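Sanity check. The docking grid for uridine-diphosphate-N-acetylglucosamine depends on where the pocket ends up, so I'm generating a full predicted complex first rather than guessing from homology. Inputs follow.
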Amino acid sequence: MKESFVVEGLGGKRTLVGEIPVRGSKNAVLPAMASSIIFNAPLRLTNVPDIEDVYRMSELLEHLGAKTEKVKKREYVINGHDIKDSVMDEVLSKKMRASIILSGPLLARFKKVTFPHPGGCVIGARPIDLFLSGFEKMGATVDEKKESFVISAPKGLRGANIFFAIPSVTASETFIMAGVLAKGTTFLKNVALEPEITALAEFLVSCGAKIKGIGTPVLEITGTNGKLLTPKIYKTIPDRLETGSFLILAALAGKDVTITHCHPEHIEALTDLLISSGVSIEIAKSSIRVKHTEKSKLKAFNIKTHEYPGFPTDVQAPTVVYLTQVKGESFVFETIFEGRLQFTQDLVKMGADIKLWDAHRATIQGPTPLKGREVEGPDIRAGLALLVAAIIAKGTSTINSIYYIDRGYERIEERFSALGVDIKRVSGE
Ligand code: UD1
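Predicted complex below; grid placement will be based on this.
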C-alpha cells in the first residue's frame, strides 16, 4: 500500500516551537549490524533508529541464517554467529545499496560471498569497482555472473595494501571488517573520514580488533586470521544528517526549536554556514537551539559537497530548500553524486527559481515563496527536503513515495507534529 504525507504549509510563518530529539545514525547502525557476522556471540545494539533500512538489514541477515531480535524499543540483539550461508538475497540486496557492506565480513568469514550488483539508483550510477579490486588485492577471485558476483578466497583473505581512488564510505567500512578477520596486515589508504566509520572502527577495537590510525585516512589493521571477535554493546551515535535536516527546518520555520541528543561537532559544516548566513544558533554539548531570526536578514551562500568533514552531500537537498528562501544568488556544486539535484524540478514546481546547469551544478535565486503542490520523494534525502519545502510553503502539499523518507527517518510525522507541523500520513492505492 502506497502512503503519502499531506502537509498544510505555514506559508512562510515561523511558528514551530519545542524540542526534537535526534535518533541513532542510519549510516552508523547498518555497518554495525553487518559486523555481527564477525562475532563469536550475539551482538547487542542500542539507540537503533526505527527505520525501514534497519528492517531491511535485519531481513538480509535473517535470510543468511542470523537471528535478529528487537529486544526492546530501539534495542536489537543479532546472532550473526548462526549464519551458515554467504549467498545474499537478490531482492533484498537491491532494495538498499548499503547491503554491499555485508560482502566484506561474509567473505572474510566464509571465504566466499555471492551478491547481486546493487545497481544504480536515482542519486547516481554508484559503481562497486573499489570493492571488487580491493577483494582481489586481498587474494580473492571475482567471477561476474549474469545476475551476481561470486567472490572466492578459498585460502582466506590475506592482508593487502589497498588505496581507494575515491574515499568511499561503505567501501572503507567493508574493508575494515574484512581486514580485521584477514591473515596478516592490511593497509587502507585514502579511507573516508565520516564519523560513522570512526564509530565502527573504535567499536571493533573495543571488541579486540587491532586497528591503528582511526580517524585518519590511513588505517593499519592486523588481522586475526579468521578468529572471531567477542562483542561488546554497540551504542549508535546520533544521526548527523538528521540533525542537519532539522537545523534547516528550524532555520526556516522555527520560532524557538532545540535539536537534542545530537553531536553538534559532526555537523559543523552546516552550522558554520547557517551562522554566517544570519541564523541565530546556540550550540551546547549535545543540543543545538535555533531561535527566531528575521527572514529578511538571512543571506545566501554557496555550497560544494565534499567528503567529511566537508559539506555532506546528504544535507545538500534540504540546504537547497533553505537557499530558495534567503536573499541573493547561491551556487550549488554537488560533487559526489550525479542524480542528487534532480529533485530541484519539484522545488521549481513549488515556485523556486533554480537553474540546473548540468547534473552537478545549480544556481538558486532567492527568496521565492513556495506553493503547496503534489510532489514525489525521489530518494531519502530529497524526500525529506521536499517535506521541509511543503512545511514552509503556502497551501496544501502531498508528498508521495514516502517509503524513502521512512527508510532514513523514524516516524517523522509524529516528531514534526510535536513541533507544531500540520502533517498527516495517508494511505492510497
Ligand atoms: C554513503 C552513505 C550515503 C552518503 C554517501 C556519501 C551509507 C550507508 N551511505 O554511501 O548516505 O550519501 O556515503 O557520503 O553510509 N564510488 C565508486 N566506486 C565504488 C564505490 C563508490 O566510484 O566502488 C563512488 C560513488 O559513485 C560516489 C563516491 O564514490 O561518487 C562516494 O560514494 P560512497 O562513499 O561509496 O557512498 P556510499 O558508501 O554508497
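Relevant for the grid: Residues 27, 30, 97-98, 124, 126-131, 166, 168-171, 192, 313-314, 336-337 surround uridine-diphosphate-N-acetylglucosamine (CB under 6 Å).
Also worth noting: The chain has two domains: 2-23+238-428, 26-235.
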